[in-house]
Amino acid sequence: MAESSHIVLRDLRASFGGVEALRGINLTIPRGQIFTVFGPARSGKTTLLRAINRMNDLIPGSAHAGQVYLGDQDVYGPSTDVADLRRRVGMVFALPSPLPTSVFENVVYGPRLVGIRDRSRLAEIAERSLVDAALWDEVKDRLGSPALRLSGGQQQRLCIARALALEPEVLLLDEPTSGLDPISTAKIEESLRRLKARVTVLIAPSNVQQAARIADRAAFLLMGELVEEGPAAQLFTNPRDRRTDDYVTGRFG
């Protein structure tokens, strides 16, 4: 496996109730980059993200074939500790899902679960995670306030901070800015650019424009198949496949 690769998918297939959602995906995701997976509805983007930390396992009737490697670890191997996998590979969903507790307790929820009790250590984790999620300056004086009182954009950044609190090596984001205003969207995108220095970011973006803005590399999926993958600068300006060109220029989708 190439030294710079972080996640490798080999002939990955996924189905739900016998209906195939991913059809033999082969993909290498480099370490320390923002990698976008884009395509129209039902292209398999969400299924691909969820396959990497085995979230699809939670869906009745799901099945998979092929391999997913995180570094040298076979994600679906019999020795894999799924709880540890999901600590290493955090995920943020399209709709913010803060816990009905304070801002502070939302962020330190994961660290508390893994046994961290020292208040000063938890405070350090909370500040670091909120800074990384570009939310610290907005909430540092109200860490004890209910998280549900935050705006939608702030709640989504809080969910990113909660995922970062466990210091994952990979961050999966499924349309994290859908429904958010442009200012909140810009803040999340900027935080992702900073994070890639130490966290591999894999995102199913809200739209093609976002994919083009933030991606280092990108992959276009269509009906569960990988159509094209490559450097973002090439894929969004001079794609090799006509279907990719039609989609990124708005001729379908």
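That was protein one. Protein two is written in the same sequence-then-structure order:
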Amino acid sequence: MVDNHRKAFIRLFNETACYHHRYEVFRDFVMMSGISIHNAMVFSDEREQEYMDIVGRYKKDDAIRMSHLLAEVVMGFEVSSCDFLGSVFMELELGSGHIGQFFTPYEITKLMAMMVHGNEINSLSEQSFITLSEPASGAGGMVIAFAEIMLEKGLNPQKHLWVSCIDLDPVAAMMCYLQLSLMHIPAEVITGNTLTMEFSKIMRTPAHYLGFWDSKLNQRWSKNESSETKLNEETLKVLPQSNVSMPTGQLSLFDVVI
């Protein structure tokens, strides 16, 4: 059961680097794990240096425990789709009430996804994939729930779904990147403000590269150059070569952009 891996994660986490604040340890674990996955696919000297700076703050035994924590996350996803990191984050009471940072329980997230996905999944009978925009992704729970619904309908989200996620908090954004990477969901995860359209970092999951999604998206969008779903190039100065596509106007939790 996935609960066994969550319990193992929390037990091991509480034994790791007691000389640091609990939030700092969780943040560093997420950052190191995400960077490791990213650099295995697209190496970045800047992110490699960030990794080295983080791991340098830990004793050897604690750095090894970090890898064991990641193993528990991986095994948790092998058992069941879930917002693993969001759930342990809340169980460890790491959320900030001051900034309103709380992760919705996955059962509620799944219910919300079932209520709002509409007929978009059914449109796959007319096209090869759908795209999903999540403007306040948190740890990616909504996307994971949407992907689970696709699986229940006999559709493979690894082939028929591409996602653009945005979150203001760098830690939440990396949690999202890590979980979508482990689920092999093609996606790009952006750190930035959806309301002001100011972005600082973008990372694409391994599935994005392995599935040649740059080509697939360009082919889709080249047929609809005048569509309002394409972002103004001026807006994306901070994100060169981005595939982000956001509709104008108010966003729903699941805005499907085609």
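The chain has two domains: 2-91, 106-256. Keep this in mind for the problem set.
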